[in-house]
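User: Secondary thiamine-phosphate synthase enzyme, Candidatus Woykebacteria bacterium GWA1_44_8:
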Amino acid sequence: MTKELVFSTSKKRQLINITNEAQKAVGESGVEEGVCLVFAPHATAAILLNEDEAGFKEDVETLLQNWIPEGNWQHNQIDDNATAHLASAFIGQSKTIPIVDGKLKLGTWQELFLLELDGPRQNRKIVVTFLAA
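Assistant: Predicted structure for Secondary thiamine-phosphate synthase enzyme:
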């Protein structure tokens, strides 16, 4: 079973906590035991698992600015968003999470994020696929 979630972003780079929406989709799937694949079908977005606590989102922004700074990237000759493509390629567009007792089996502090890298965008789709054990 697959469900599509849609989010809007308001900034060039933005972390959106999508844990509740993903968990709701798991509940609607009826899968009690299995895996959940969360996938962003975009070349300029990524999926992260981490803690949603003070400073984390700002730290991700700082890391991205330092790790992949704006510059004279070859891809910018095409559409001027090379840093978004590079960050998405290295961070990754998917995560696989176990489903146990009908719920995402996340760690105590783990939450699921959509990382917008080339916003703002009105329709960032997240494909959530459930595989029963």
